[in-house]
Amino acid sequence: MSISFPHIAAIVAITCFLSGCSSTKSESVFYGETPYTLETDTMKRLNNIPKLGQAQITIAVYNFPDRTGQRKPNVKFSQLSTAVTQGPEAWVINGLKAVGGNDPWFIVLERQGLDAIIKERQLIRSTRELYDGESDVKNQLKPLKFAGLIVEGGIVGYDSNITSGGAGARYFGIGVSEQYRTDQVTVSIRLVAVQTGEILLTTSATKTIASYSSGGDVFRFLDMSTKALEIETGVATNEPVNYAIRTTIEHAIHNMIYEGIDKGLWEFKIEE
Predict the structure, then answer these.
(1) What is the DSSP string of the chain?
(2) Looking at residues 37-58, what average pLDDT do you find?
(3) How many Å apart are CA 174 and CA 236, to the nearest integer?
């Protein structure tokens, strides 16, 4: 039994349709996208928090480490790369700076690069002593600001393959299938008073990371079973882990703001 060219074209078209026409997806992935700034929904919620009813709060972020110890999952060989980002402090600082939008709640002080700041200030002092003389009070550097509060915590949980599954079907050599998998990341934040060392509040947030794949294939014999036609196509979509961690941190900061309201640590400005 032979199959004409129109039949082959129809099989290819059906396979492409069932798999979601993954060729277009593959082309966009191959060429990539131009750099852009992503504003998440949680970031918009932080921007829309009402104005602070008191003076701005000085706050510092030292370390926000990955405490999971998880490595990237791989069924074939062990991975040395970590499963989550090693620089979540940047997302914590971005989240704190976003609270209140155009009327920011916090003055976030640099602590990650504190050594560089101190070295630069020492260089300025030595240069002024050499050329200008340090006796002039006007030329002296202003002291660094100190924080009243410190944000601590970290990524405390990364659970892979929480749920997984799939489904498929095949009829007369034409098959389709789909698979899914979910991971989970958990972030914990605590707010510490510098003067007393007291932990004023602690909060956490958890987010599910979803992965999905679908595909289709065709297998038919041609020319009295002497030749075979086989076509496979598919596409997979994985939610970026960095995006999940960023939104989880922003959500935890949002929780921190409202828990601080409940505990009387700060208050909203009353609009007249």
Answers:
(1) ----HHHHHHHHHHHHHHTT-HHHHHHHHHH---------HHHHHHHTSPPBSSSPEEEEE----B-S--B---SSS---SBSS-S-THHHHHHHHHHTTTTS-SEEEEP-TTHHHHHHHHHHHHHHHHHHT-TT-GGGSPPPPP--SEEEEEEEEEEEEEEEEEEEEEEETTEEEEEEEEEEEEEEEEEEEETTT--EEEEEEEEEEEEEEEEEEEEEEEETTTTEEEEEEEEEEEE--HHHHHHHHHHHHHHHHHHHHHHHTS--B----
(2) 89
(3) 20
Which amino acid, residue 219?
Answer: F
User: What pLDDT, in 10s, does the model give residues 50-109?
Assistant: 999 899 999 999 988 877 776 666 555 555 566 677 778 889 999 999 999 999 999 999
Rg (CA), the chain: 28
Beta carbons within 8 Å of 43's beta carbon, 6+ residues apart: 94, 95, 98, 250
Residue 256, pLDDT above cutoff 60:
yes
**Per-domain boundaries in the chain:** 5-111+147-263
Highest averaged pLDDT of the listed ranges 27-41, 184-198, 220-234, 258-272? 184-198
- The CATH superfamily label for domain 5-111+147-263 reads ABC-type transport auxiliary lipoprotein component (3.40.50.10610)
Question: How open is the CA angle 148-150-153, to the nearest 5 degrees?
Answer: 165
Rounded distance between C-alpha atoms, residue 205 and residue 155, angstroms? 10
Residue pLDDT, tens place only, 114-144: 899 999 998 888 887 777 665 565 667 888 8
pTM (2 d.p.): 0.77
